[in-house]
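**User:** You know discrete backbone vocabularies at least as well as I do. Would you mind producing a protein record, from residues through to fold? Write it directly below this note and I will take it from there.

**Assistant:**
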Amino acid sequence: MSHRDLEIDDVFAATGDTSQPSPLTEEMTVYLATLLNNNNSTTNASKGFLNQAQGAHLGVPAGYSYLFQLAGHDLVFSSLVPRAFDDIGGRSQNLRQEKLALETLFGGGPIVCPHAFDMQHQDGTHRLRLGKFRPAGRMSDDRLSPSADLPRNRYSADSPDADGPFTDVLIPDSRNDDNNILAQLTAFFHAVYNTLVAHTATAQMPGTGGPIPPHHRARVARLATARLYRRVLRHDLLPRIMPANVLALFDANAGLDPLGRTPSETNDLFAYGIARMAHSMVRPEYMLNNGVDGHDLGEVDLRKIINHSSLHEPGMVPTPIDWKIDWALFFTAPGAQLPNNFNWAIRFGPHTADGMTLATAGKPTKGSYPAGTAMRDLLREKWIGLGRVQDLIQSAAAALTAQGVAVPFDAATHYNRIATTGMAALEAAVRPGHKPPMSDADKATITANLPLVTFLALEAQIDGNNGATYGPLGGLILGAAFAPVFGDDTPSSTDAHFAQALEIAAYGSTPIRDMPTLVAATPIT
């Protein structure tokens, strides 16, 4: 079964399994997805959830929603689709050996993933592959600089060299080609690594008086890239999306266990709750640039951005040069002067951008049931069996109390307050003609048994400053998943000392902590 074609019958046939305590029926799930689809976000005006003022639905700079997606792929890479393993009696495994170490870029390295690396350099400084752009407005085998796209290839069973669409993207994690913004951001981090590894042959390493030996260069450059990336996540991404009081808990309590759940359960809470709820950040359109080589795209519809990938529409790639992203329209430092067409993400909440309601974004449907990410995310959570949100709230409160840490919510009332207030507001925001009929009793059942992804969206709107950040429970899950970024990055091994010296050689003595600085300092050729 394709991970993009979950069948409703298969999901609800599993209802009653001990891992599926939710009593939500198929009709209730369709109803909830329809509410989310029809409470669409827009870039110009709020749809009225909790009576937000004009423009108050805008969130963080839009680039951070895609940095968050890249980090999500770096945290969780499941071995099997949920419940595809039922017949073999196993459980899906997270194949990430080390979280937030950029395995999503490097895979197992050049031995395990040789297709991802350019091996022409024989001195240990082999680069991650990059691709060039095609000319604007036409399909062509001509390629234009800079090298800022993912590397792509075409393949045909009849003839590997056949003239055809670019079906293969030469990276270890094909999810990073899920949309063209993420693809170009992934390519940017390829360039960060390539900048660092290029310096390994000449940078003077502490205590050695010479450069890194060739057989250590790729490892040290990879470590330097990961250290820099983690620093950006901790100091630039998380403060923008995590409640400040919850972020402070992790800073003040090393090794905090905020949930009382196993690592595997925490992975699932992130993958099927936190990461899925982040779909609400997506805009319906983006300004990719202010024109390239006389071509001005204007705003580009989200569905086109999704389709420009080897994964979805290989006939549309390599990326045309007029799609080259100007990251100054996506990332900014606080207080910086911004262009009028800067891209802001949508605030977190129970809504879905127009382009995310299409089958290309996910089709867990039958008949006329709603397509898109909302229904797919609800079904995936039901498949995986995350359990009751009320139980998670109590588990988190007990775990924090046992560690002497203040609980950032009232565990006795938190679920009912969020669910009751939030569902009433969501119901009011969607007009009667835009949702199927549902009895009051069934609505009450939905409110009492919200999926985690929906609860987190409502919590963000109610307790996260109208969706500016996750709410407190969402923040605890986020902090647990991102635990590696809270560690002390003071070098404690020879390779770590080398990595620090390499970063200084490539990027200067002031540690980079934010995306605008990293973008400005990384050469793209």
Q: What stands out?
A: The chain has a mean pLDDT of 86. Residues 214-241 form the longest helix (28 residues). The chain is about 40% helix and 5% strand. The first strand starts at residue 58 and ends at 61.
